[in-house]
Design a protein that fits this description.
Blueprint: H1 6-18, E1 28-35, E2 38-45, E3 48-54, H2 111-125, E4 140-141, E5 147-148
Antiparallel strand pairs: 1-2, 2-3, 4-5
């Protein structure tokens, strides 16, 4: 939860721990093996090499755009080194008549952000002049308790 208010993140972590979740941040899993319905996990963190036996293992490594082989090299649409399509504030690419929205462009990877961008692009194509106010797009983490900002 690096982008969440630090006090909210602390309180959420406290609630998760009360639920029995053992959350390791900044760790790097080096191995995992399932034996007798348990997951034996080897990982490294700031304390060095660690081992853990758990019922279930969730590894969160972030998100990325899935744009591999999406575009022809001569399409005129450019991407950055992480695979995001370059767009301006109106979601136009550098290729005439080509727009991109959602998880393949900058910003949070949220369905409601993509939807707002899609509506804006459709209205712009229809000759209107809408804008997306990215400061008004809520963020949410679907946990229990949910965290939103």
């Amino acid at each position: 939860m690096p982008t969440v208010d630090q006090q909210v993140a602390k309180d959420a972590l406290k609630q998760f721990r009360k639920q029995g979740l053992d959350i390791v941040m900044g760790g790097r899993v080096t191995g995992a093996e399932v034996k007798r319905k348990l997951v034996n996990v080897s990982y490294e963190d700031s304390k060095g090499k660690q081992e853990l036996k758990v019922d279930k293992l969730i590894v969160a490594v972030g998100r990325r755009p899935y744009t591999d082989n999406l575009l022809a090299a001569d399409s005129g649409v450019n991407m950055d080194e992480r695979g995001f399509i370059f767009v301006d504030e109106k979601c136009k690419t550098e290729a005439p008549g080509v727009w991109a929205v959602g998880d393949v462009v900058r910003g949070p990877m949220l369905a409601h952000k993509a939807s707002e961008e899609g509506v804006m692009v459709a209205e712009r194509i229809a000759g209107q002049k809408p804008q997306v106010n990215y400061d008004c797009i809520p963020n949410v983490i679907y946990t229990s308790p949910e965290v939103a900002w």
